Amino acid sequence: MNFTLSEEQKMVLESLRKFLDAEIEPAFRAHGEGFIPREKMQRWTQQLSEYGLIKAPHAEEWGGFGMDWLTHLMVFEEVAYTSLDIAIPGFINCVGAELLSQLGSEELKRKYLPDLISGDKFISMGISEPDVGSDVAAVKTRAVRDGDHWVINGEKTWITNGEYSDVFVCTCKTGEGEVSHILIDREEHGYDVMGIKKLALNGQSTAQVFLSDVRVPVSNTLGELGAGLKNTLKLFEYARCHMAMWGVGVARRAMDESIKYSQERSQHSKPIAGHQLIADKIATMATHIDAARLLTHRAMEMVQSGARADKECSMAKWYGTEIAVTAARDAVEIHGGNGVTKEFVVERLARESIISPIPDGTTEIQKLLIARCLTGIQAFR
Ligand SMILES: Cc1cc2nc3c(=O)[nH]c(=O)nc-3n(C[C@H](O)[C@H](O)[C@H](O)COP(=O)(O)OP(=O)(O)OC[C@H]3O[C@@H](n4cnc5c(N)ncnc54)[C@H](O)[C@@H]3O)c2cc1C
């Protein structure tokens, strides 16, 4: 195991950080927390893809850089540190493109992969439904065969990138107990979306997707019929590593803001950084962040090498997203009253961090999965 960054990784991260500080941070601040229109989000996503946000791990054949997933995760951490709103669409495109490259036909890959990897088009992926959350196997959206087409009906919710999406990977029932993935093109096949307002992260899109008699060619099926659950678990491994780094990005920003503030703010005749209980919070944040990053890099390395990594991905996701919550809360406390005002970034981080343990399987679900790997006993059914 190598803990030193390669020269290439150093170069990628240094140039990305300069771009984020000079361009993205001020532009995001100027925009504020309202919804980022597609054109603007597309421009930022395209620019960031050139720094590896989407391109890094994908094959050169499709317009990627042919690098590795670990470097991509490091890039994602940096962008998440600056703005989760701006990092998330690229994360979804990157993982969605991986799903397509693993399961799609050559024709589908040729048609969609280059545009998804460049950030010209957006993908979204839908498992969750109004009545279906943690229990993924219970999806109700149904695809019924009609000659060479599927006719799809159902409702999906919490769909990241929903409003931006050009294509939608729908997890649905294609037969009794048979879960499959079908790719729907918004322009060709049509589906309706409606944005969802949240506690935070309203710059990017989270939406409901409505599917009403949507006719899609059978050739748009991704992977084998009935392999949807198995393929979803594989997809979760990539997504959970990203969720963990989303947490690390937020926690690291919370720590850096806390260090700066505690050096500048004096109480009881000295900088508050010199008070031992404040020092304890900062030391704890730093140690949690490193531990979360190490857990995540290990999990990603295992996924990339083809090893079974469900337990390690769940550990990383649980830990990385929960330490974001505690780091952001401690950062607000270190800022005192200022910490709850819009003048300081930590107020936004605290709201964003609360969301982080929920997508891609809650903390409770990750713990059940870890325990199942250890005991062999199924907690679900
Ligand atoms: C910002 C955001 C983005 C998202 N993006 C997407 C997306 O792009 N695509 C998509 O398909 N979904 C997406 N989701 C949905 C997300 O994956 C679900 O919200 C999550 O899986 C939890 O499902 P639920 O909200 O229905 O909660 P529920 O499953 O109803 O759970 C409610 C509570 O019960 C607990 N619980 C449930 N079952 C058990 C159990 N067996 N044992 C113990 N506790 C249990 C949960 O941990 C939770 O605390 C997103 C969610 C959010 C908030």
Automatic annotation (TrEMBL):
Protein name: Acyl-CoA dehydrogenase family protein
Highest taxon listed in the record's lineage: Bacteria
Annotated Acyl-CoA dehydrogenase/oxidase C-terminal domain residues: 226-373
Residue stretches making up the Acyl-CoA oxidase/dehydrogenase middle domain: 124-214
The UniProt record lists the keyword Flavoprotein: yes
Keywords in alphabetical order: FAD, Flavoprotein, Oxidoreductase
Any GO MF annotation of the entry: acyl-CoA dehydrogenase activity
Residue ranges annotated for the Acyl-CoA dehydrogenase/oxidase N-terminal domain, each copy included: 6-120
Family per record: Belongs to the acyl-CoA dehydrogenase family.
InterPro entries hit by this protein: Acyl-CoA_DH_CS (IPR006089), Acyl-CoA_Oxase/DH_mid-dom (IPR006091), Acyl-CoA_Oxase/DH_mid-dom_sf (IPR046373), AcylCo_DH-like_C (IPR036250), AcylCo_DH/oxidase_C (IPR009075), AcylCoA_DH/ox_N (IPR013786), AcylCoA_DH/ox_N_sf (IPR037069), AcylCoA_DH/oxidase_NM_dom_sf (IPR009100)
Cofactors, names only: FAD
